[in-house]
Design brief:
The protein is α+β, with helices and mostly antiparallel strands and 245 residues long. The chain has two domains: 115 residues; 112 residues, Roll (Chitinase A, domain 3), CATH 3.10.50. 47% of the residues lie in helices and 16% in strands. Strands 1, 2, 3, 4, 5, 6 and 7 form a seven-stranded antiparallel beta sheet that branches. A hairpin with a 5-residue loop joins β3 and β4. The longest helix has 110 residues. The protein is rod-shaped, with a radius of gyration of 53 Å. The chain starts with a helix and ends with a strand. 20% of the residues are buried.
Length: 245
C-alpha cells in the first residue's frame, strides 16, 4: 500500500515539472522582451534627446550668426549715415563760412565803390566835405557813404572795418586793414565792451555804409593813455559797417 502511494506521487511530480519549467521559460522570455523594449526605448529617447540638443545648438549658432550679421549691417548703415550727415554738415558749415566771407568782401568792396579792399588803412584821415552832426554827448558823426543794407540797432551784433587817427596830429594809431582786413565784432551794440563813442556812433548805420566818428576824450579813453593814444585825446574813426545780425 505504501509503495503504491509513493509511485503515484513520483508520477505526479514528473508530470508537473515540465509545465512549470515551460512557464518559467516563457516568463524569462517575457522579461527579456521587456528589458529589450525598455533598453530600445531608452536608446531611442537618448538619440532623440541628442538630436534635439544638436538641433538646438545649431539653431543657437545660426541665430547668433544672424544677430552678428544684423548688428554689423546696422553698424555699417549707421556709420554711412553718420559719415553722410557729417559730410553734409561740413559742407553746410563751409558754405556758410564762404558765404560769410563773400558777404564781408562784398560789403567792403561796396563801401569802397567797387575798389579792392585796402591792404592798409590810410596814414592820415581822408578829406571829407560833409558837415558833421554833433550829438548831445559831444560825439560828431559824418556819413561819408550811406549803406543800403540792414540797419544797426541797439542790441545788434555788428562787424566793421575801421581806421583810427589822433585828431591832434592826424597820425594813424590802428586799422583793421593793417591786420589783414579782419573786421571787428561789436556785440551787443550799445552796451558792448568798447569805447562809448562806438556804442553810440554805430547805431543807425546801414551795411555797406562808411561813417566818420569824431570822439571826444569823454567817450574814448578819458585821461588814461592807451598804447599810442595819449591821455585826453580826441579820436577820429572811419568805420565801414560790414554786417548786422
Amino acid at each position: 500500500m505504501t509503495q503504491t502511494t509513493n509511485k503515484g506521487n513520483k508520477s505526479t511530480q514528473k508530470l508537473y515539472r515540465p509545465g512549470q519549467r515551460q512557464q518559467e521559460r516563457l516568463q524569462r522570455i517575457a522579461r527579456r522582451k521587456r528589458r529589450r523594449t525598455i533598453i530600445t526605448s531608452t536608446i531611442i529617447a537618448l538619440v532623440l534627446i541628442a538630436l534635439g540638443s544638436v538641433s538646438f545648438w545649431q539653431y543657437q549658432v545660426y541665430t547668433d550668426h544672424q544677430h552678428t550679421l544684423s548688428v554689423a549691417a546696422t553698424a555699417t548703415t549707421t556709420a554711412k549715415a553718420n559719415a553722410k550727415s557729417t559730410t553734409q554738415a561740413n559742407a553746410s558749415v563751409t558754405a556758410g563760412v564762404q558765404a560769410s566771407a563773400t558777404s564781408v568782401a562784398q560789403a567792403v568792396s561796396t563801401a569802397y565803390a567797387g575798389s579792392p579792399t585796402p591792404s592798409a588803412g590810410p596814414t592820415t584821415p581822408p578829406v571829407v566835405t560833409q558837415a558833421a552832426k554833433k550829438t548831445a554827448t559831444g560825439l560828431q558823426i559824418i556819413d561819408i557813404k550811406v549803406g543800403s543794407g540792414a540797419v544797426a540797432k541797439a542790441g545788434s551784433t555788428v562787424e566793421a572795418e575801421y581806421t583810427g587817427w589822433l585828431q591832434s596830429s592826424g597820425k594813424k594809431f590802428d586799422s583793421s586793414f593793417d591786420h589783414g582786413g579782419q573786421p571787428i565784432q561789436v556785440t551787443p551794440l550799445g552796451t558792448a565792451q568798447i569805447i562809448p563813442g562806438w556804442n553810440e556812433g554805430l547805431i543807425g548805420m546801414k551795411v555797406g555804409g562808411t561813417r566818420r566818428l569824431i570822439i571826444p576824450p569823454s567817450l574814448a579813453y578819458g585821461n588814461q593813455a592807451q598804447g599810442p593814444i595819449p591821455a585826453n585825446a580826441t579820436l577820429i574813426f572811419d568805420v565801414t559797417l560790414v554786417s548786422v545780425k
